[in-house]
Fold this sequence. Notes:
The protein is an alpha/beta fold. The chain contains 12 helices and 13 strands.
Amino acid sequence: MTRLPRRALLAAPLLAAPALVHAQAPVVNRTVRILAGFPAGGTVDVACRLFAERLRGVWAPQVVVDNRVGATGRLAIEELLRSEPDGTSILITPASMVTIYPHLYGQRLRYDPIADLQPVTPVVLYPFSLAVGPAAPGVTNLAQFVDFAKSRNGIAYASPAAGSVPHFTGVMLARAAGIELTHLPYRGAAPAITDAIAGQIPATINVIGDQVEHHLSNRLRMIAVTSERRVPRFPDIATFAEQGYPDLTTDEWFGAFLPARAPAALVQALNAALVTAAQNAELRQNLEAREFEAFTSPSADFAARIQRETTKWGPVVQESGFRPED
């Protein structure tokens, strides 16, 4: 894992020289913005602000979050592409913007995730959970869920958005289990969960952190998690893989990116700065309170992960037949 040079200093703000000079100063000597494609207060914004706080004074004198809301997160990516590759603009975005959207939007997408973005490192990792409410009485595991769906010739499930990982997780489950699952897209996790609690829909797939409170209060029952291993806080909830569905193992991540033209030395320095930030105990505690995990990797490993996941989601999106309107 790369370690940050002692607050390396670029020879000039626009990287006039590729070498980084060791000095007691931030890497970039201007205000830096972290681009977030979602509103203030949401999970992406919270993660951006936690990392901005740790980069302040290390990466730049000031690091601010710039919320570019709209087009389901795409505006922030498009803004990064208009930015100079000098480290003054950093994008932190969920995985689906770069691994699923190319299959959804095709030529309508105004960026090429592979050609236009330089992966730096993931910063946050988190699973999803399948939860059932009072409209699925007695269902406590996936086998019972599948039997329940078959007994009713199919059921509906909710996700926080059409075209999201939870949406396509349901598609994959239906295919693997041989059941009919009708997807109901909502505008965010909260209304989906509200309807599940009210018995309007039997099941919902969401970020695990959004469902924890309701699981603990017995208003919902989380019956499977998409992570490779059980979530430490909920050791009694088995993974999809443990319950016979290994292909449904998937962790969503938020990742940091620079424009593709960013010099390798700058990418390496930002990777090191974010790795150091992710090791901060207070930051990790703040993330864990939301059922998130601080997670980093070398930039080359991150790029390989993106390639693998992009390949994985292609057939799933195609089989679903879903095409977004916007």
